Amino acid sequence: MCGIVGYIGKKQACDILLEGLKRLEYRGYDSAGVAVIRDNELIVEKSKGRITTLENKISDKLQSATTGIAHTRWATHGEPNEANAHPHTDHTGKIALVHNGIIENFASLRKYLESQNIEFTSETDSEVLAKLIGHFYKEGNLEQAVRDALSEVQGTYGIAVICSDCPDKIVAARKGSPLIVGIGNDEFIVASDASAIIEHTNQVIYLSDGEMVTVNAEGFRTTTLDDVPVTKDIQQLEWKLEEIELDGFEHFMLKEIFEQPQSLRTCMRGRINTREGAIHLGGIANYTRELARAHRFIFTACGTAWHAGLIGEYLFEELARLPAETEYSSEFRYRNPIIEDGSVICAISQSGETADTLAALREAKEKGALAIGIVNTVGSTIARETDAGIYLHVGPEIGVASTKAFTGQIAVLAMLGAYLGRRRHLSQHNFEQFISALEKIPDQIEEVLNLSNTIRQIAGDLFECEHWLYLGRGYNYPVALEGALKIKEISYVHAEGMPAAEMKHGPIALVNPGMPAVFIATHSSQYDKILGNIEEVKARGGKVVAVITKGDSQLAKKCDYIFEVPQTPEPLEPLLTVVPLQLLAYHVAVLRGCNIDKPRNLAKSVTVE
Ligand code: G6P
């Protein structure tokens, strides 16, 4: 989604802004722009397409400026073109604004401003806000104009505003779209995402909804939108610069697939103690009793995180005998859901900023549910709005197609399920067996990663296929959904994931000679049943690709291609079976010449509805 960077300090703003925009590229965008103030003049440059196109347009004129704002736009209102790109300016050409979010009442505001003879040059909702600030602006008081304008708008925003009358100032505000201020030595960086800040400083403040900040050479001042001062704690960013670099890999997605053994070790470190036979989860320790006595768990999430939630549902029912359900956040929020006493809402989100998940969380909280977060990004909105939570600690995920966050989410759900299970029905013996198997997973993933070259060769045979089926049962049904999503996201082929038994109820009509059907067919409780499904595909000439348990030579003979994974208890299998599917999607996408880390039309973090 859209990205914001603002800089004020002693260095050349333009270089820092462009570097910041590049760090935000992974979020997804289709145009970009920058505005700086030089010699009390506002200069704006914008372009459609990649940041390198914008970079080529930057003239010397912009170079010596030390204050500026920049933006990557992911089109919502109006097509991706130069006119619609941010920054937008007011009617005097003194004020420039970058905006993330959606101004819902933009049409009526635009009509009013047009009646005041203010002309518009774009189709965006954001330009309305820029023009409105200009409309309210009285010499020298940018903050008041921003306050006045924001009091008129409905919708969501993260904004950064500059004005050529006050060249050493950036005003920023947020409601529903994240904004962070990095505090460096004699410099400030305002950004929508920590990755644009980390190169310069690890000291930050997170703005909350309804807050505004002014940064200038003297420091920063945070207030509410009504100008009541707010004291903010300076916090330390957890991530390191190396973590957001490619480190010799060709793509972030591949790097992150290969990071999984290590990211899971970090996720479990200090939490699983096999010697003591215990799990420690500091983030929920104060709520253990409420959670163990809960009547119902509702997992809410979008995309890949929703698939993790489905696995969580199975884990919670089996390990803790706790009723659990998984809801698409976008559906749950508008359904007037029933929340009885003893309900726990558990939001699962890599970014911690997904608009629908946040709204679903708020809806359930409002109705009295205890709110838990399973989130990767420390300090994110969901993390801050939940009563308690467990961070993934898998490090920043830059690849748009989620990989290590997915396995981190499953690992956290497995730890939480076992932790609550032990406080309900799970015997110490079974609990200990489970956690020692969980602890072995990172080493077992290392083994699976060795298949990468074989998977590349298989991808060589199949990459031209346009239709794929992914089938699994039980714990591996959500893995089938995730495998299909991965290949869709980055290869743009049509893939359907489903419970294997459902194939007979319609999708089997699609199977024709040569169509790949990817089965997750480990030696689990439903093994015999899935063998039957494999036969059905073979009988119709489909190509069977199967993830099987290592050493299952009988099944290996029936399949066209196999990926062997080591043995682990069934509830933990998704942590292993998903890895070859991530690699398959990756290699197919590379062979199809797709842009792996910036897939078309997708955004890493969907911060609007
Ligand atoms: C976007 C991303 C997906 C992700 C989903 C939920 O659609 O492209 O990869 O799974 O959002 O994101 P979250 O940050 O809430 O996990």
CATH class of the largest domain: Alpha Beta
Q: What's the pLDDT, averaged over the residues? A: 95
Share of residues in helices: 25-40%
Helix count equals 20
Strand order of the largest sheet: 3-2-4-1-10-9-11-14
Q: Please compute the radius of gyration using only Cα atoms.
A: 25 Å
Unreliable runs = none
- Tell me the overall shape: globular
Describe what you observe in this structure.
- The chain has 609 residues and is an alpha/beta fold.
- It folds into three domains: 3-237, Glutamine Phosphoribosylpyrophosphate, subunit 1, domain 1, CATH 3.60.20; 246-441, Glucose-6-phosphate isomerase like protein, domain 1 (Rossmann fold, 3-Layer(aba) Sandwich); 450-596, Glucose-6-phosphate isomerase like protein, domain 1 (Rossmann fold).
- The strands form five sheets. Strands 3-2-4-1-10-9-11-14 form an eight-stranded antiparallel sheet, with helices on one face. It has a six-stranded antiparallel sheet with strand order 5-6-7-8-12-13, with helices on one face.
- Helix 18 links the parallel strand 24 and strand 25 (543-549).
- The model has no long low-confidence stretch (mean pLDDT 95).
- Residues 302-305, 349-351, 354, 357, 400, 402, 602, 604-606 line the site of 6-O-phosphono-alpha-D-glucopyranose.
- 6-O-phosphono-alpha-D-glucopyranose is lined by residues 302-305, 349-351, 354, 357, 400, 402, 602, 604-606.
